[in-house]
Specification:
With about 350 residues, the chain is of the alpha+beta class. It has 2 domains: about 5-155, Four Helix Bundle (Hemerythrin (Met), subunit A) (Up-down Bundle); about 165-335, no CATH class. The chain is about 65% helix and about 10% strand. It contains 13 helices and 5 strands. Strands 2-3-1-4-5 form a 5-stranded antiparallel β-sheet, with helices on one face.
Length: about 350
């Protein structure tokens, strides 16, 4: 599992634990009662016959008072809390963790607690009260241990280089990268996209290189750092590009490439205005912008045209389940490639595909 997905799932699981406050409050109240009973049990082992009798009476009285705690949270609401927590944890952690036994153990104890709670509220007897207190203590301990386990994973999966002053951070996850050639082509397209944007903005690449924070395979995840203006424009173009592909993909399996005409790029991605907003004087470099548009669209097509789901700086852009399946099936049948024809407006020849 790539690091952004793991991080997101762990964070979702921790949020689920934090949201279970009514359950946690109930466990805390049951633990207080259990501690009081422990005190009286210790007194029974150490005291006289009179002390044993008095402590036994106190234990019985404590168990008899358990309904004052359970009535603060209706059984229906508590079972709903358990059900929601189990569902959220299962969804977040169902795949990808190496140590799945911690998840399974915690969910198992959670189920045992729900069963003991149900047994007690149906028949509120001392015989049912003690098992409830015992499993509540186990769940309290498991809750703390499980939360610590998730926090440990989160802390140890998040080590990456940090951005420098005057740099912006850029994270990209491409979910459909299945071989080395595709992996290298998309990294090359990403780098070429940054280089061309820097050229148009007048940014010195040697002074502001696209630095690697982290790269992972499996899918393709990159965390990069670069010039603030160039990265900001690159993010906008990638988001606009993936929206274009997802809007124009059909159930028949047709994938539309982004046209290389500057007019088309302006219409679809508001390219010239984005350049202007990034500090570029577009009126004086129209020819350079037109040529740059062709290079940028080539690399956007290479980078994004076969991606049903893309994550940009934590923002997930998805084509939808039905079309996602159709796109992946189409890609499996034949390798999708974009070979542009000569542009009638710019008079540019297609790039050498050899």
């Amino acid at each position: 599992m790539i690091q952004p997905t793991l991080t997101r799932r762990i964070e979702d699981a921790l949020q689920a634990l934090n949201a279970a406050s009514p359950l946690v409050e109930m466990l805390a109240a049951l633990e207080v009662m259990h501690q009081h009973i422990d005190t009286h049990l210790n007194g029974m082992t150490e005291g006289s016959t009179q002390d044993i009798s008095g402590n036994a009476h106190s234990v019985h009285a404590k168990l008899a008072s358990l309904p004052t705690i359970t009535k603060t949270l209706s059984a229906r609401k508590l079972f709903r809390e358990v059900e929601v927590l189990e569902g959220r944890l299962s969804k977040a952690l169902k795949d990808g963790l190496d140590e799945t036994k911690y998840v399974v153990e915690f969910l198992g104890i959670l189920d045992e607690f729900a069963e003991a709670y149900n047994a007690y509220v149906v028949h509120q007897t001392g015989k049912n009260a003690l098992p409830l207190l015992f499993i509540a203590r186990r769940l309290t301990q498991a809750f703390s241990s499980f939360q610590g386990f998730l926090e440990y994973i989160l802390a140890n999966s998040s080590y990456i280089l940090s951005r420098r002053e005057n740099e912006a951070e850029f994270s990209l996850v491409l979910t459909n990268v299945t071989d080395i050639q595709a992996f290298s082509e998309k990294l090359a397209a990403l780098n070429a996209l940054y280089l061309e944007i820097c050229y148009l903005l007048g940014v010195s690449v040697p002074s502001h290189p696209l630095r690697i924070g982290k790269i992972e395979s499996g899918s393709l995840w990159t965390k990069l750092f670069g010039d603030t203006r160039a990265v900001g424009l690159m993010i906008s173009l990638i988001e606009g590009g993936i929206h274009f592909f997802h809007r124009n993909y059909t159930k028949e399996g047709k994938i539309a490439a982004i046209p290389k005409k500057l007019e088309s790029l302006n219409e679809m991605l508001d390219f010239s205005n984005r350049l202007k907003e990034s500090g570029c004087d577009v009126t004086e470099i129209q020819e350079k912008i037109a040529k740059g548009a062709a290079i940028i669209t080539d690399n956007l097509n290479t980078l994004l045209s076969d991606q049903p789901v893309v994550e940009v700086n934590g923002k997930i852009l998805s084509i939808g389940q039905e079309l996602q399946k159709a796109l992946l099936e189409q890609i499996a049948i034949q390798k999708i490639g974009y070979v542009p024809s000569p542009d009638p407006v710019l008079g540019l020849k297609p790039p050498d595909q050899t």
